[in-house]
Amino acid sequence: MKELHRFLGSAGVRYETNCLLSSHSSFHIGGHATLACFPKTREQMLAVLNKVTQLGVPFFLAGNGSNVVYSDRGFDGLVIFTGDWKELSISGNRILASAGTSLYRVSVAAREAALTGAEFLYGIPGTLGGAIFMNAGAYGGSMADICLRSEYYDCVSGESGWLEGAAQEFAYRSSIYEKDPRYTVLGAELCLTPGERGTIAQVMDALMERRKASQPLEYPSAGSVFKRPEGYFAGKLIEDCGLKGTRVGGAEVSQKHAGFIVNRGGATAKDVQELVERVRARVLQETGVCLECEIRFIGDF
Ligand SMILES: Cc1cc2nc3c(=O)[nH]c(=O)nc-3n(C[C@H](O)[C@H](O)[C@H](O)COP(=O)(O)OP(=O)(O)OC[C@H]3O[C@@H](n4cnc5c(N)ncnc54)[C@H](O)[C@@H]3O)c2cc1C
Question: Is 111 considered catalytic here?
Answer without folding.
Answer: no
